[in-house]
Amino acid sequence: MALSTSLPPRTDTVATEDARPARRLPRWSLALVVVALLAEMAIAMLTTAVAQSPTIDEPVYAGTALTYLQQHSLRYNPEHPPLGKLIIATGLAFADVHLDPAFRGDQTQLGRHVLYESGTDPGRLLFLARLPVIVLTLLFGLVVFLFARDLAGPAGGVTALALYAFSPDLVAHGSLATLDVPVAGFVLTSVWLLWRARRRPALYLPLAGLALGAAVATKMSALAAVPVVLLLVVLSVWHHLRAHRTLRRLGLGLAAAVTVALLAIAVVWAAYLAVDPRLRWATPPGLPALDGPRALARWLPLPRPYLDGMRVQFGFEDQAWSTFLFGRYHADAVWYYLPAALLVKLPLGALALGSAGAVALVALRRLRPVAPYVLVPAAVLLAAAMTSTRDLGVRYAIYVPMFLAVAAAGLVLLRPRWARVAVAALVVFAAVSSLRTFPYYLPYSNEAFGGPARTHLWLHDSNVDWGQDLARLGRRYPHERLWLVYKGSGVPSAYGIDAADPRTVPPQDVHGLLAVSDSAIAKADDRLTALLAGSTPIDDVGHSITVYRRP
Asked: What does residue 218 show for φ and ψ, rounded to 5 degrees?
């Protein structure tokens, strides 16, 4: 596929269209602002990573990453492709830990074995697993800045980066050894490169294909973005060849889309072959059949472990998952869960700017060319996530604050001075809201819902309590015996906690301190409800564990 890189006069950068001339910042001062914002985010993420015990998913990913490094085996965690865990493995390569070749447990037992039974400090091991994701999250911050700068100039870039850097959800999940921020960032990177491909397709289309492949090789939810990205490939080529005939534009656009798709497929295969060049794999027993619309998965030109991993995910979707939303327990999934949860979890300033930016991209003619690149991928991914039966947190929609930050950048092009003052004020409001929640980013909720101390009244699971505060509980109550109902993957004794489960003894034998994860409270059964009814709340650890005293 040969696409010319000779350019007509530049007309696709919205910052240059119908915009009032602005005083340009010196390059050094702009760089200083970018570095300062990323440094603030880095400090927040590093502080959080050091202080928190493992969340539910992290030990599995860390253990799987070590099997990649030391045993070159794909047998663990097939429901997620390898790339994200290979990224985590780059940090664990510096850990002095060795897997027992005779270990034969499942992936949950593997995670516990690696963190708590390998003779290595679990805190140091977890930090090394988290560090590559922290670095990647900062790099995605640069993508947000560059994307927004392309659309709205330096002021737009700074606006978007500030919203990204002060996003509590991005700080929270960017500091964990998980896959949600990496997959969202790779999708965003692919879309940004496609926007640039409108001017230089020969350079940016292959890079977009690699970024799309990285997303699909990190988490299977990125498959929903593939049709959108390929359509954007055609749109970018169509724009670049606007002086040519329609048939030629369409033909080259489709050829470019095929090329991007092939590159993405190659990245997925490369990720699996990087783990095991021989691609040894045995299909796990008991996987659901691929029938109905799911049968289309059989035709995907992807490795067998990937396709079987899709079947594992289908099995999860077939299970019954309960939901806790706005203080109410639901026995099944709620279709509007993610939009509702985002209203709770996004800072009000970011929510206002992102929403206004989205409207501006559609309503204003000079911003309209950007809309398919910024709004359509986010909308499609959100719609796909809303079909899931697992309402477990806004991490499934973590790309929303990324794309909304870019959308908000367009507001700096509005002519009225009061509009730019309002944008600046709302950015400051979002930043202050984020700083006030430090260091408890995971349970953040905005001021309309009472802040992080009250998030557990509205939401549960990874929105509030993902097991991250076991270490804080141990530091708060050292050498004290606790009755503990804990939702997480940490081992209490590793943090100096002498604990027993109160649900295993008669209620009349439960006296003293009772610590309960807020997610367990949200879905309390009759036995736990009775225990809580006779207890007095006395403390709150990290806004995710409530401590009671029982007479």
From this structure: -105, -45
